[in-house]
Amino acid sequence: DQQVKQNSPSLSVQEGRISILNCDYTNSMFDYFLWYKKYPAEGPTFLISISSIKDKNEDGRFTVFLNKSAKHLSLHIVPSQPGDSAVYFCAASAIYSNTGKLIFGQGTTLQVKP
Amino acid sequence: SQTIHQWPATLVQPVGSPLSLECTVEGTSNPNLYWYRQAAGRGLQLLFYSVGIGQISSEVPQNLSASRPQDRQFILSSKKLLLSDSGFYLCAWSIVRGAGIYGYTFGSGTRLTVV
Q1: Which of B49, B96, B104 lies closest to A46 in CB terms?
Q2: How many independent structural domains does chain B possess?
Q3: Average pLDDT over chain A, rounded to whole?
Q4: What is the residue range of A51's domain?
Q5: Does B46 sit within 8 Å of A93, measured CB to CB?
Q6: Rounded to whole angstroms, how far apart are CA atoms A38 and A46?
Q7: Full domain range(s) for residue B21
Q8: Which of B6, B32, B106 sits opposite A44 (nearest CB)?
Q9: Is B45 on the interface with A (CB under 8 A)?
Q10: pLDDT category, B100, cuts 50, 70, 90?
């Protein structure tokens, strides 16, 4: 049972344009969401997070939007840069459990072309 | 500041051999600790998590086990490796406080190849 889904395995955009990565979840108990960036043979690095009490969180070029009714979140990168090329994972957690365990999507490979 | 150390970086082991991967965290107390695995071409799967010394929860049935002998030490083990245990293993830590998860930093990972 895939509770967090990233249905697009890959995305290619031109440098300077917007990258939009999507993520859907099925468990209504999830109330905290994170995005990670990962390069091959390295651990994921945290990008941005959002609590279910918000519908938007912004940090520099990265913005995460949360639509609770649709159980959908998206990561916007504007403007996209070649250094953004990596695998992006969304992850979800239920804060109330106090375990902090994250359930990850399958990842989306972003390629930003110069 | 908090740091997480994971070793070794790469490991090639024959089928049937034992395994021990170690992870330590510095700069924080009583963190939640996690082991994840990324199989080839797939996402990150949570294997084990621990909310305290000696407290281990398993997420998926498998050939592996985990232990937490000290507050900031987390060990992933196997008595006999299978080919299907090959993958990229990641350790992570977090602190859950209030309405947020803090830290959730990953180690640099161990590439395990079972031959």
Answers
A1: B104
A2: 1
A3: 94
A4: 4-113
A5: no
A6: 9
A7: 3-114
A8: B106
A9: yes
A10: confident
What integer pLDDT is reported at residue A94 of this predicted model? 86
Q: What is the pLDDT of residues A52-72, one digit of tens each?
A: 999 999 999 999 999 999 999
Length of chain A: 114
Contact call for B88 and A41, based on CB within 8 A: yes
pLDDT score for A2? 80
Q: Each residue of A11-34: b (16+ CB within 10 Å) or e?
A: bebeeeeebbbbbbbeeeebbbbb
Q: Residue B43 is part of a domain; what is its CATH number?
A: 2.60.40.10
Q: Tell me: pLDDT of A97 over 90.
A: no
pLDDT band at B14 (very low <50, low <70, confident <90, very high): very high
Domain count, chain A: 1
Give B113 to chain A, closest Cα distance, Å: 13
> Best of A101, A103, A104, A109 to disrupt the B interface by mutation (most B CBs within 10 Å)?
A101
Contact at CB, A100 and B104, closer than 8 angstroms: yes
Question: Which of A46, A53, A103 shows the shortest C-beta gap to B46?
Answer: A103
CB pairs under 8 A between A and B: 74
- Provide the mean pLDDT of chain B: 91
Query: Going along A15-61, which residue ranges are E strands?
Result: 19-25, 32-38, 45-51, 56-59
**CATH code of the domain covering residue A60:** 2.60.40.10
8 Å CB contact between A4 and B45 = no
Chain A residue closest in CA terms to B99: A95
